[in-house]
Design goal:
The complex is a heterodimer.
Chain A lengths: L2 E5 L3 E2 L4 H11 L6 E5 L5 E2 L1 H16 L3 E5 L3 H9 L7 E3 L2
Parallel strand pairs in A: 1-3, 2-4, 3-5, 5-6
Helix pairs in contact in A: 1-2
Chain B lengths: L8 E8 L2 H17 L4 H21 L5 E8 L3 E8 L23 H8 L2 E6 L4 E8 L10 H30 L4 H16 L3 E7 L5 E10 L2 H6 L9 E2 L7 E3 L6 H8 L3 E3 L19 E9 L2 E10 L8 H47 L11 E8 L6 E7 L5 E8 L3 H17 L7 H18 L4 E8 L5 E7 L4 E4 L4 E4 L17 E4 L5 E5 L16 H13 L4 H19 L5 E7 L13 E5 L1
Parallel strand pairs in B: 13-23
Antiparallel strand pairs in B: 1-2, 2-3, 3-5, 4-5, 6-7, 6-12, 7-8, 7-9, 10-11, 11-12, 13-22, 14-15, 15-16, 16-17, 17-20, 18-19, 18-21, 21-22
Helix pairs in contact in B: 1-2, 2-3, 4-8, 5-8, 8-9, 9-10
Classes of the chains: A alpha/beta, B alpha+beta.
C-alpha cells in the first residue's frame, strides 16, 4: 500500500494554510493511497486550516485514497469536534 | 480587598488589512491577555476567535485599509472589538455549520459565536464593528485598597518619625550628665506612654556576661492601685517597682528574660504561659502577657527589654511593637556605650588620682639624707604601684643629732598620701621632741588620732634618734617592723612597743635606749622588704635579711653599697618569689664602714 506521512506545521491558520496546501499538493503527485497528517506539533488551527485538511481529504477520496489525522492536540481535537468534522476525518491517537 | 467594576486596562492596535499583519496583531492581543493572568486555555480560545474574526475583516477589506483591535478587561469580562472599513457583510441571524460537512468554508462565524458569550456585528457606512465578549475564567489580581494602604503607610511613617524624634531626644538627654540608670528609667516611662504597654523592664548583661542586672522598669498603676492612689490630672501614672531579684542568672533558661537572651529570640508570653516561681516577670501581676526582646549590638547580646500588659492576652499593633523594638535597641546601645564611657572615665580618674598621690609622696621625701663624721646613711623607696603609703625621712637636728623616721600609712592612693603629708608636717613642727622619741610619737598620735580614726586608717612608725656623738640610739616603735642592729656577730631586733598611730589615743609610748658601741650597721625598713611568714629557703626571709646584715658588717660595707645590694636582693626576690609590694628602708653604717669616702645620692626611689 502506497502511504505517505506529512508533519503539519505548528500553526495552521489563514496566514499559513495556503502555502502549506500548495506545498503538500506538490509532494503528493504520486497519488498515495493513504496520507497521514501528523498534527502532534500543531498547537493552533483555525477554520482556514480545517478547510485545507477538508480539501486534501476530498482530493484523496476522489483518488481512492484515505486521509488520517495523527495525534492532534486537545485544542485541535476540541475544534474538530466543535465543527463536527470528527465525522469526516479519521483521527488516530497513537 | 475589592475588585474594580470598571475597565481597568485596555489595548488598542491599528494594523494593515493583511493576513500577516492580522496574525501579528492577534499575537500581540494574546500576549496582553497572558500578562493579565488569563490561562493558556482561555488565551487559546481567544486566539481562535480573533483569528476567525480578523480573517473575516481582512477578507472583506482591501490591503490599503486599516483595521483596529481594541481589547479591554474588567473584573468579570474581556471585551474585544474589531473594526474594519469595508462594505461589510451580512451577519447571519443564526450561525450554523455548513450543511455539507466536507465544505471547506463557512465555519468561522459559527466558531466565533460558539466560543463567545456575546457577539454582535454592527455594520455601518464605511465602518463595521464586531463586538466580542467572554467572561473571565481567571480572576484578576486583587486591586489594592488604596485607602487602607495609605493608612498603613501613614502609620508606618508616623511611627518612624516618632521613633526618630525620640532617638534624637534620647541622644540629647544622654549628652547631659546623667547616669545610665537614670537615663533608662526616664526613657522607659516615656516609652510606656507611646507604646500602649502597661509595663516595661530593662535588664543588661553584667560585664562578665553571667548575669542579667535589673537596670530600670516602668509600669502603669493597675486599676486597683489607681483606686488606692488616685493620680492628679497631668500627673504621670507611670511608676517604678523594686523587686527582690536584681540579678538573674543567664543559665536559668526557665526564666523568660534569660531565655530571650540565650536564644537571641523574642520570647512571647501570655496568660497560658507557665511562669517559673523565680521568674521576675511573674511578680508584675497575676495575669500578664507580652514579649521579652533581646537587645544586641553588632551581633553581641547586651540585655533584654520586656514589654507587656496586665491581662492574659495581648495583640499589640505592629507599629507599637516596632517603636518598642527600635527604641529599645537604641536605648540598649546607648546605655552600653554610656557604661563603657563611665568605666573609661572612672579608670582615667583613678589613674590621675594615683599620679597626684605619687607626686605628693615624692614631694615628701628629702633630697638627700644627712651624713656625718660618725654616721653614714642611705635609703631607698620602691613604689610597686602608682603610689604607696610608705614614708621615710632623715633629719639633721639642731644639736647635730639625727632623727630617722620610717612609716607606713595604711592604704594607697590620695588618702594615704594626704595622711603622709600631715604626718610629715607634724613631725617637722615637733623636732624639739626628737631626742625623746616616745614624746614625739605621743604628740604625733594625739594630733592625728581623730582624723585617722574618722577615716578608719592607721600609721605604723619607727622613730630612731641618734646622738650627735653617734653612740646612743633611742628608738620608739608604733606598730612597725623591728629595727635591726648588728655588730658583725649577731643581729638584734628592737621590736614594737606601741600600737600604730590612730588606734588608741590613751596608749602610752615608750622608747628604748641602746648603746651603739660595737654596732656597725642599722636597718630600718617597712614590712614590704621582708616577710617573716616566708619559709627559710624562699625569697628575702627574715633569716636571710639577718645573714645579709651580718655579712655586710663583717665586710665593712658602706651605707650606699649596702643599700644598693639590698635593693638588688629585694628586686630579685620580688621578681622571683611574690607579688610586688612597696618596700622602704634606710641603712645606717658606723665604725669600719666609715673608711669609705662619702657619696651623693643617699636616697633612691624606684617605681615598679
Amino acid at each position: 500500500m502506497n502511504a505517505t506521512a506529512i508533519i503539519a506545521p505548528a500553526e495552521l491558520c489563514s496566514s499559513t494554510s495556503r502555502q502549506w496546501k500548495e506545498r503538500i499538493t506538490k509532494d503528493l503527485t504520486e497519488q498515495p493511497q493513504e496520507v497521514s497528517i501528523d498534527l502532534s506539533k500543531t498547537r493552533f488551527i483555525d477554520s482556514s486550516g480545517l478547510g485545507v485538511l477538508l480539501s486534501l481529504n476530498k482530493t484523496l477520496r476522489a483518488q481512492g485514497g484515505v486521509l488520517k489525522l495523527l495525534n492532534p492536540s486537545s485544542a485541535v481535537t476540541q475544534l474538530i469536534e466543535l465543527t463536527r468534522l470528527h465525522r469526516v476525518f479519521e483521527i488516530v491517537q497513537a | 480587598m475589592s475588585y474594580a467594576s470598571q475597565v481597568t486596562e485596555g489595548l488598542h492596535i491599528d494594523f494593515p488589512a493583511t493576513l500577516e499583519d492580522a496574525h501579528e496583531a492577534v499575537s500581540e492581543i494574546i500576549s496582553w491577555l497572558e500578562s493579565h493572568r488569563q490561562d493558556r486555555d482561555e488565551c487559546g480560545t481567544w486566539e481562535l476567535v480573533l483569528a476567525e474574526a480578523t480573517t473575516n475583516a481582512v477578507t472583506h477589506s482591501s490591503s490599503e485599509q486599516t483595521l483596529q483591535i481594541e481589547a479591554s478587561c474588567s473584573a468579570s469580562h474581556i471585551q474585544i472589538r474589531i473594526t474594519d472599513h469595508s462594505q461589510g457583510f451580512e451577519w447571519p441571524e443564526e450561525a450554523c455549520l455548513p450543511e455539507d460537512d466536507e465544505n471547506e468554508h463557512g465555519r468561522g462565524i459559527f466558531i466565533i459565536e460558539s466560543l463567545t458569550d456575546h457577539c454582535s456585528y454592527l455594520r455601518g457606512r464605511g465602518k463595521n464593528v464586531l463586538d466580542l465578549q467572554r467572561q473571565r475564567k481567571t480572576a484578576p489580581p486583587p486591586t489594592e485598597d488604596l485607602a487602607a494602604t495609605l493608612d498603613l503607610m501613614t502609620a508606618e511613617v508616623s511611627s518612624c518619625y516618632e521613633t526618630l524624634a525620640n532617638i534624637f531626644s534620647l541622644c540629647a538627654e544622654a549628652a547631659r550628665d546623667v547616669s545610665p540608670e537614670e537615663l533608662a528609667s526616664n526613657w522607659l516611662r516615656q516609652l510606656l506612654e507611646i507604646s500602649g504597654a502597661d509595663f516595661l523592664a530593662l535588664r543588661m548583661l553584667t560585664p562578665d556576661g553571667a548575669l542579667l542586672e535589673d537596670i530600670a522598669n516602668a509600669a502603669r498603676l493597675s486599676k486597683a492601685e489607681n483606686e488606692a492612689e488616685p493620680v492628679e490630672e497631668n500627673q504621670s501614672q507611670a511608676t517604678t517597682r523594686s523587686f527582690s531579684i536584681p540579678f538573674i542568672n543567664l543559665d536559668r533558661t526557665d526564666l523568660i528574660e534569660s531565655r530571650a537572651v540565650t536564644l537571641r529570640q523574642d520570647q512571647w508570653f501570655d496568660g497560658s504561659s507557665d511562669f517559673h516561681q523565680d521568674d521576675p516577670l511573674s511578680h508584675w501581676s497575676t495575669s500578664i502577657s507580652g514579649v521579652a526582646h533581646p537587645l544586641e549590638i553588632g551581633g553581641e547580646v547586651i540585655g533584654v527589654l520586656t514589654v507587656g500588659v496586665f491581662c492574659d492576652h495581648w495583640e499589640p499593633k505592629a507599629r507599637d511593637i516596632n517603636v518598642v523594638r527600635s527604641l529599645g535597641d537604641f536605648l540598649g546601645t546607648l546605655l552600653h556605650s554610656l557604661r563603657r564611657r563611665d568605666d573609661a572615665n572612672h579608670s582615667r580618674l583613678i589613674k590621675r588620682e594615683l599620679q597626684i598621690a605619687a607626686d605628693i609622696q615624692r614631694s615628701l621625701l628629702p633630697d638627700e639624707l644627712p651624713q656625718s663624721a660618725t654616721l653614714q646613711c642611705a635609703g631607698h623607696l620602691t613604689t610597686a604601684g602608682e603610689v604607696g603609703g610608705d614614708f621615710m625621712d632623715g633629719i639633721a637636728l639642731a644639736d647635730d643629732g639625727r632623727l630617722f623616721v620610717i612609716a607606713d600609712v595604711m592604704g594607697k592612693g590620695v588618702p594615704a598620701a594626704l595622711f603622709a603629708t600631715a604626718f610629715r608636717s607634724l613631725l617637722h613642727s615637733h623636732l624639739d621632741l626628737a631626742a625623746q622619741p616616745c614624746e614625739l610619737m605621743r604628740c604625733l598620735n594625739t594630733s592625728l588620732f581623730a582624723e585617722l580614726d574618722r577615716a578608719e586608717m592607721f600609721i605604723t612608725v619607727e622613730l630612731a634618734w641618734i646622738s650627735a656623738d653617734g653612740f646612743t640610739l633611742r628608738t620608739c616603735n608604733a606598730g612597725h617592723g623591728p629595727l635591726l642592729l648588728t655588730d658583725g656577730q649577731q643581729v638584734t631586733e628592737i621590736g614594737a612597743d606601741g600600737p600604730p598611730l590612730g588606734i588608741s589615743v590613751e596608749e602610752p609610748f615608750t622608747h628604748q635606749e641602746v648603746s651603739l658601741k660595737g654596732i656597725t650597721h642599722l636597718l630600718l625598713h617597712t614590712d614590704g622588704l621582708s616577710d617573716s611568714t616566708l619559709p627559710e629557703d624562699s625569697g628575702l626571709s627574715r633569716d636571710r635579711l639577718h645573714q645579709w646584715l651580718i655579712n655586710t658588717s663583717v665586710e665593712g660595707i658602706d651605707a650606699w653599697s649596702s643599700r644598693d645590694t639590698l635593693r638588688q636582693m629585694h628586686h630579685d626576690h620580688q621578681d622571683n618569689a611574690r607579688a610586688q609590694d612597696d618596700a622602704t628602708f634606710v641603712v645606717l653604717a658606723r665604725e669600719n664602714a666609715l673608711l669609705s669616702p662619702p657619696r651623693n645620692q643617699t636616697l633612691t626611689h624606684a617605681s615598679r
